Amino acid sequence: MAQGTTAEKTPQDAVAAYKRLLAAILERRPSGTRQRLAAALAKNRSFVSQIANPAYATPIPANHLAPIFEVCHFSAAERLEFTRLYAQAHPRKRLAEAGAGNVLAVHLPDLGSEARNRKLHGLVSSFVREIARLIDDDREEGNHR
After folding, report:
1. Burial (CB count within 10 angstroms: exposed 0-12, middle 13-18, buried 19+), residue 47
2. CA dihedral for 74, 29, 65, 16, sign (positive or negative)
């Protein structure tokens, strides 16, 4: 079976297909991209290696897609193909939320240590997610503004 051209045989094959695409995109990006992606996800660099490794069946969380697209500078065609493969691997996930909306980059100060920087990034990311969740809850209750 050719890669990415037909339906994948198993869920693991489908996950591996989008991870192969991510790995290929990361290979074409400048050095430091993996570290920037790790920082954007508030994870270790080894986490980025794991989510880009087709040998690991662990799926990429949907909430990580928008930062991946932004940091890795996916082209429109790359994003479309990745999204297609991701939807094939995870048919029950709502991808519209992962890629929809405006992206706003917030430049955080360097606090002098990686641990403190990671903590700050996590706090800001969590705060933004909570705001988004509050807005989504309001919309589900019919309070559109």
Report:
1. middle
2. positive
